[in-house]
Amino acid sequence: MFRLHRLPPAPDEIYSSSLATFHEGHALWYPEPHESGEPQIGDVGFIHRGAFIRLFNLDTSAPEKKVTFWPVPFDDIKPLPPHVLQIDRRHRPLVPDHYCSHGMESKEIHASVDATAGASMSLALTAAYKCKSTQSAVLALKSEAHAETLFENQVLENYIVRNHDTWYTYATGVLGHRLKQENLVVICGWVKTEADWAAAAFSNISSSSHVSVEGNAGGVAGMELGGSHSKSVTGPRMQRQGRHYLPDASHPCPVEPTRDQCMFVKRYGVRKRLWIFKKIVASADYHQLLDMDDGRSGSGGKGAIAQEEDNLIGANVLELESEVRLSL
């Protein structure tokens, strides 16, 4: 008898949802720079199978951010309002350590001093975890991470709302991407580190699963990621690692640190919803942005909305979303 079995979530979906509790943004299963370029603040693009795909960048004053990957470039970028790309820089929001999602139970942790990597001693961490959830993830960093995030700005949010339809037409109509409108996003922040990370994702665990992480948290060598399970795992245990995670003579680590691995991205997205005027009038703030060019008659101001409040007429409202968790 033919039966349909629902596939477990993809590793990139498990990984991003499991690490969302760190509030650093959307965790990328593929943090390496895509062929379209390294993620930058002001990028317009989308996430595909755990990687961020750049379409174009809104900052036309920075030639290094220009995207040349696509056969037809986007050349209808409206000028940004002044001073909307003010950046909040944070050093070491994530230090060399093992970061586990909810449901990972620590079985043992101990530290030791390692002087073999050089003249200066460094701390080596060893940890073993037991997964007690249906899905979970682990991120191991050997180098510190740095973060940049835009300050929340109402002017920028309104700019995104006004232009999002044009960007979506380019992505789907010109380039032909099969893409939901809310999945076309603007990058407003990132967390980056060097290419010496490791990641693991677990799904559909029917009994219990174990993962052990060993490594030199302050050096460049000796970190390992492994796992086992006691009975059965109905879904796969997937893992990835950066280029310099394990010592490799053919790919020596650069002398100067290169933080081009984008572990997390923060995003603005726009979604169209059918709302009722009464609710808009009662709770509208700068996070609920009314599209004034949606074809309705009238001036579209507060007076017009108040007059139609009792009619409870539906309207398309553009809703701004981001990892900043804007109130709606």
TrEMBL record:
Location of the region described as Disordered in the Swiss-Prot/TrEMBL record: 228-252
Protein name according to UniProt: Uncharacterized protein
